[in-house]
Protein: OsmC family protein
Organism: Noviherbaspirillum galbum
Amino acid sequence: MECTVRWAGSSGMTFIAETGSGHIVTMDGAPEGGGRNLAPRPMEVVLAGTGGCTAYDVVLILRKSQQDVRGCDVTLRSERAEKDPKVFTKIHFHFTVTGRNLKPNLVERAIKLSHEKYCSASIMLEKTAELTHSFEIIDDAVTASATSANA
């Protein structure tokens, strides 16, 4: 895996990353740091990538467990050290998993497997941050039938 990051020019602190798969990610700094607030901060991209990594795992594990998963959102709330290097010190992952007749024990297992075995991003961040998790399940069958009844 490789990635090339280029400074977009001397007028600010915008950087453009091109991933090995040919995708572009733009990052920028805060105005007080010389940025123009045109894109996410690099550490926000790290947090977003971690969310994507673990959500991917959870969906894949639930599908392999024959669960009818139809949606998976994860909200990450983090704290960082006050002094440089301002590493993440705490990250809480809250999963909202939508589907039909999802088994809570299998959702919990999928989250646990992701964070203990498969999600390399969260496993790396665990070296500096306390990671915590919570989840809720939204039964799509209940939502769908309630919507139909109200129509």
In short: Strands lie at 3-7, 15-19, 24-27, 68-80, 88-100, 130-139. The chain has two domains: 3-33, 42-150. The first strand starts at residue 3 and ends at 7.
